[in-house]
Amino acid sequence: MTQGYTGTNHSSAPEHDMVMKGRRLLDITGVKQIESFDSEEFLLDTVMGFLNIRGQNLQMKNLDVERGLVSIKGKIYEIIYLDEHHGDKAKGFFSKLFK
To answer: What is the pTM of this model?
Structure first.
């Protein structure tokens, strides 16, 4: 084993990845919690900010809270991060949620 390796330590910084298979299955890692979901929209809190997934007939296929893994199946139309670059859109989205 080599000493002095300065690469990313997977245990110190949680990873966030997405793998989409044919617009029908989406695997997401680095999910801290699921804020809300229904058959047309999922709102996830990830280690890289809020993630909004929109589509049709969306269902949670798998949830592994310990590993931060969520699998969503259905027809996926849009994946967007709601962060400081989309501040107004994020505020609008949250105001819709809590009306």
So the answer is: 0.72
Evaluate whether residue 5 is within a structural domain.
no
> What CATH number is attached to the domain comprising 33?
2.60.40.2000
Q: What is the pLDDT of residues 58-80, one digit of tens each?
A: 999 999 988 999 999 999 999 99
Q: For residues 42 and 93, what is the distance between their CA atoms, to the nearest angstrom? A: 12
User: Total structural domains in the chain?
Assistant: 1
How far does Cα 31 stand from its chain's mean position?
6
What is the enclosing helix (H) or strand (E) of 82? strand 69-82
* Residue of 64, 38, 33, 65 whose CA lies nearest to 51: 33
Residue 45 in any domain: the answer is yes
Return left, alpha or beta for 85; rule: phi > 0 is left, psi -120 to 50 is alpha, else beta. Answer: alpha
The Cα–Cα gap between 86 and 63 comes to 27
Domain ranges, residue 39: 18-97
